[in-house]
Amino acid sequence: MKELTLSEIKNMDIRNIDKVNLAIEFANEVSKFYPCEPLFYVHESYPNYIDYVGYILKNEKCRIKIKYLNFGGKSSRNEYMIYLDENFKYIDDYSKKRIFENFQTPNKIHKLNEKSIRKWVDFLNKVYDYLSKLDLERIEKVNQFLNKIKDENIKWIDENRKGVIRKNGIEFFFEVNSNGTIYQKIGIALSEVLPNYENFKLLSDNKFSNEKR
Q1: I need a surface site. Which of 32, 76, 114, 163 has the fewest CB within 10 A?
Q2: Any residues with CB less than 8 A from the CB of 182 and at least 6 apart, and which?
Q3: How far apart are CA 50 and CA 149, in angstroms?
Q4: CB–CB of 38/6 below 8 Å?
Q5: Residue 66 pLDDT more than 70?
Q6: Which residues of 158-168 are buried (b: 16+ CB within 10 A; e: fewer)?
């Protein structure tokens, strides 16, 4: 999926131009209170067809988007949702949810106004700072672990994320999870080794090799 700005699609032969017009209308409505631009998403196989639209609020620190949640009719549950649109290396959805619980979230927006939008933008900037710092800490922790094992003969299952080291009949398995935690497991790698006394002696004397016996 490719992201395009309004200026980028102006000279394109967009088939569903009605979606563009509606997007401009919504962005203009938001911009009465806070600068907003529409973003258009097209699939590479159908470059002239707008698949869906997003709306980004002007902000120098990070990407913050807004969307309207319509629950039908003039329900008081209808609201404008403002959210952070950033990817982190080791911050998964569960981590984000737990972290958001530690912040005082602004009230939901049912009617657009500048004060409410700015509260959300300021709030999400603070959340972004916190998440960025936490992500860097987790990246450093993972890098330290990978540097410790870099000279080992690693059989990678997933490059720089999951692998196995086998040495002297011992197997070390590791997996870097999406939140930066590292699962580690030590086991005996003897599936192809005869269970005899000779191999037991080699293992117990730390003289076993990975060569088949």
Answers
A1: 76
A2: 141, 142, 145, 174, 175, 176
A3: 47
A4: yes
A5: yes
A6: eeeeebbbbee
Mean pLDDT across the stretch 70-87?
A: 81
Number of H helices, E strands in the chain: 5, 9
Angle (CA) 133-139-142 rounded to 5° is 145
- CA angle in degrees (0–180, nearest 5) for 112-37-107: 30
What is the full DSSP assignment across 105-170? PPPPBSS--HHHHHHHHHHHHHHHHHHHHHHHHHHHHHHHHHHHHTTS-EEEEETTTEEEEEETTE
- Mean pLDDT, rounded, for 46-56: 94
98-135 pLDDT, tens digit per residue, is 888 888 899 999 999 999 999 999 999 999 999 999 99
Domain locations in the chain?
2-146, 152-204
The Cα-based distances of 81 to 44, 77, 78 in angstroms read 28, 12, 10
pLDDT value for 76: 59
- Pick 194 or 205 by higher pLDDT: 205
Closest of 17, 52, 15, 59 to residue 37, by C-alpha? 59
β-bridge partners, 40: 4, 53
The size of the chain, in residues, is 213
Pairing of strands 46-57, 154-158: unpaired
Angle between helices 114-149 and 93-100 (to 10 degrees): 130
Which contiguous run of DSSP H or E holds residue 201?
helix 197-204
Phi, psi at residue 153, to the nearest 5°?
A: -85, 90
